[in-house]
Each structure stands twice: as C-alpha cells, then as structure tokens.
Amino acid sequence: MHKHASCTNSNESRGHSFMSALNTSASFVMTIAWFVVALFCPGPLRAQLGTTPNIKHIVVGRCYNYITLVNPSLRHDCEDIWRHFEKAVFRQSFCNVTVEDYHKMFFAMPQTWPCDRSLFWSKTRTLMHSYAAVAPEFWTLEDTLVGYMFNDLIWCGQEEDSGFDFSSCPEWSACSDHPVYSLWRQASQNFAEMACGNITVLLNGSIANAFNKKSMFGSVELDSLSPQRVDHVNIKVVANLEGPFIESCTEGSIVDLIQILQSRGFRWTCTDNDQILMILQCIKNPEQSSCQTCVNSLIHRKSPTFN
Ligand SMILES: *[C@@H]1O[C@H](CO)[C@@H](O)[C@H](O)[C@H]1NC(C)=O
Ligand SMILES: *[C@@H]1O[C@H](CO)[C@@H](O)[C@H](O)[C@H]1NC(C)=O
Ligand SMILES: *[C@@H]1O[C@H](CO)[C@@H](O)[C@H](O)[C@H]1NC(C)=O
Q1: pLDDT by residue (tens digit) across 155-196?
Q2: Contact indicator for 152, 55 with CB cutoff of 8 Å
Q3: Which helix (H) or strand (E) holds 200?
Q4: pTM for the complete prediction?
Q5: In the annotation, is 7 catalytic?
Q6: Residue 156 annotated as catalytic
C-alpha cells in the first residue's frame, strides 16, 4: 500500500504536469459511469426504469443547445440526427440494437476535437465532475455532441410496437445488444479513436481492479487509442483521502495497464495523488487529516497577497 502524499510533499515529479492537470482532462464518463454501475452492479433482474420521459424534447433540445451555444461552429441537423436515432432504436428488436444500427446517426453528426485534452476515466465519476468544473477546457465524452445529447438518458424500443417503451427497459445483461450500451460503445470508440497528443486517464486507487478490462475504458477505449496519434498517456491514480489505498502506479491492475501501453508502443506517465485532484477532494472534505497540511500551506502561501 502506498502512502498518501500530503499537499506540501507531493510525489508529483514532473513540474508542469501539475499545471497541465488543470489544462487537460476530466469527465468523460458521467454517462459511462451510470452504465459501468449498471454493468457491474450484480442486480439480479431488478426492474429497470423505462425510457426517460420526454426523451425527444430532451435530446433534440440538447442538440440545439449544443450547436447554438456550446459549439456554434457545428452545422448539424438536429432533427435529422433524431430521425436516425429513432430508426436505429425502433427498427430492431428492442433488445438487439447493434453499434451498426447507430452508424447512420453517427454519420450525421461528425465532430473533431483538439489534441491534448481528452480525458478518460473509470470509477472516478464524482471527482471527475469537480475536475471538469475547475478545468473546463478538457474534453470528456460528455463534451462531445453525442455525449452531451444522451448523457444520463435511458431508452429502449418495444417488441412489437414501433416506439419507445416508457414503462421498463431491459437489463444490460438481458440483451445481446442493449440499445443504450451500443450507442455508448460506439461513442466511446469514436472518442478514443480521435484522441491525440497527450491524454489523461483517471483511475480510482481505492478499489481493486482500478483498471478493469471489462470497463468501457478497458474494453473499448484502450483498444481504440492509436500510438501514432497519442504522444503520452498520462495516468492519474487517485485514492479517497481516507483510503483505502489499494492500487497505485506500482500496485495492482494499473501495472497491467502500463504493460499493455508499453507493449503497444505508447509513451506513458503515471502519477499517484495529483495535487489538484487532492485539493478538490479536500474542498469537499476539509476535516480530513490529510487536508490539514494542505489547508495550512495554502493559507501560508496566500497570505502575502492579501496584505
Ligand atoms: C438481432 O439482430 C441480428 C442482426 O440484425 C439478427 O440476425 C438477429 O436475428 C436478431 N436477433 C433477435 C433476437 O432479434
Ligand atoms: C472510488 O470508488 C469508490 C467505490 O466505487 C467510490 O466510493 C469512491 O468515491 C471512488 N473514489 C474516487 C477518488 O473517485
Ligand atoms: C505531454 O506529456 C509529457 C509527459 O507528461 C510532457 O513531457 C509533455 O510536455 C506533454 N506535452 C504537452 C503538449 O502537454
């Protein structure tokens, strides 16, 4: 088990990566998170929620919001995207929507994004939201048009009828190709294929299998990253302040990840206890003993500027 670095004595060795932490990464999976939860929660035939009410208004509204306010350079046809989405979901048996069924929809919403900003994460959703809030320039899946439009939504068609099933949708595990899973799978693949320059991967050091080969990162994104396009894979392992400290850059599944990266010819770095991420945790939980040094040293450093 590694020791938690304090704020004043961080084991961050690459000086500027402290700053680049601000400039890159962070929330690629609000969406992924819920389905990772869904994938790995051993819920035996729990009743699932049905399609999110008002889904059409939400999806089309988010699309217009995105192309009008978030990224006005895009010239996509939101109604057309919706039509392709409906066709993909309605045309198939309700539990059998493949990634191919979504291809026309993805074709109608091409998007490129800048290098050095992609953030991938697994099992660090809450922290990622904080990270995203302080470092809005990094790109996560939710910052892409498709991620933005479908974040946190549920949908499925009906067996006979054409239309959504608003009363219940099947479990992931019950379907050969779940309509929600297939969309995110393709979206994640596209996101990873586009990644270039330096990318950041945020993993949870407080759980076993922080790098899970069944997660969207481990099963789809990692395989879609190109060693030719990606300069460095910068891994950040972040544990809860109060522990447990189970995995780190030198312990557990992260070592496997590093081996995979190395064998594929990626350059990589790995940091335990990134300062920014630790400060973000301390803001939510200042009473933690590991935060006291941090707070004191920050007050100390800042005081002259208030004089
Ligand atoms: C699922 O879709 C595939 C390809 O579209 C088809 O061959 C298969 O019969 C379908 N299965 C069910 C249960 O509908
Ligand atoms: C790590 O995972 C646990 C269990 O899912 C979660 O409670 C915790 O908030 C996560 N820690 C971080 C730093 O994301
Ligand atoms: C990419 O990451 C490496 C290793 O952390 C660093 O040396 C390099 O300066 C980074 N490049 C950019 C453009 O951030």
Answers
A1: 999 877 789 999 999 988 888 899 999 999 999 999 999 999
A2: no
A3: strand 197-204
A4: 0.80
A5: no
A6: no
